Structure formats: C-alpha cells, structure tokens
Amino acid sequence: IRNYIWLEKKRLKSSPTVISEFLTKTRQAIFSTARRSHFGIRSCWTRDGAVFVKLPNDDRKRIASMEELDLLMNKFPDTSTGLPTAVPITASVMTSQPQAGSPAPVIASGCRPPVTRSKGAAANRNKSNK
Questions:
Q1: Domains of the chain: which residue ranges?
Q2: What are the start and end residues of every segment in region (Disordered) (predicted)?
C-alpha cells in the first residue's frame, strides 16, 4: 500500500495536499541543500529514504553524502529554475532624473520602479481631484 500511495502522489501536484518522506538529519540536509541552493525544487526528490537529483544532462543521480553533492554542485553550475537572479541597478542603467510631473524613470530592462505613496499623500491627491 505504501508504494502505491508513493507512486500515485504525483497526481496531487495541483492540490494543496503534500506527502513527504521522513529523512535522517544527514539526508534532510543533503535534500534541502540540493533543492534550495542549487538544483531547484523540480529536480530533487526522495524515494525510499534516498535523495536523487536530475542533472542538466538529464541523468538522475542518487546522492549519499554531502561530499557527493558538493562534487555535483562543482561539476554542474547552478541549474535551479527558481526565481530569476537579481541584477543590481546602477546609475548608468537608469535614464536621466525625472522632472516634476513626468513619469518615473525607466530602467534599461523596461521596468519601472514601484510607486509608493503614503496614506496622507494619497488622501491629498484624492481631495485635489474632487
């Protein structure tokens, strides 16, 4: 029954229900490191207490120790597909300073910085529009 449930848990991916395996401290540390800091959530999994990763060349590798994980992390640069890497915004990336009443500066990537207003400023703006 356990194996049946374990094999069928893929069907739960679109639901809020999660089935996870209890791991030893060492294996949990390996699993967490592989998922969070290198290979990503979709490329790491456990089965029968063992930790597996899918490598960029589509090979699957069982990891038994932190040393093995370190070797793989050095051999394959960061492949996680999590959030995009942040790029610092420098003065050379932004256009010239905006003048009063002009739109916010456009960053080279085409994104605008977020607009933030205090509640007081928003209230004053609403009064002036009436």
A1: 2-75
A2: 96-130
